[in-house]
TrEMBL record:
Highest taxon above the source species: Bacteria
Pfam families: CdiI_2
Protein name as annotated: Contact-dependent growth inhibition system immunity protein
Domain annotation CdiI immunity protein: ranges: 7-95
Amino acid sequence: MNGRPVETPALDLVVGAYLHQDWPDECTDEWAALEAFLTREPMRARTLSSEIDGLLRVRLSEADLEEFLGDHGCDYFADPASGGNRAWLTEVSRRARAAATAAQQ
């Protein structure tokens, strides 16, 4: 993958600080790691879904998405049988959007 397709500071924080190599020691699963981010980083959490949506609009291949995530410190590996990184990122975006909506109410 050449260059950075979009700026993703919130996503970079999620994958680099919450899904780093030791994340399984700190969280029960990837969704608990995401919940920790959403709770601890509410300002950044508000932009996470739009960042992911922008990244997915670039239409990177699955291999490019894996490279992008790995380059940003992610040590979570999405299950290819469940749709891989694209499906996982879509669900992360959905959950982040729902959390941001709930926080506004």
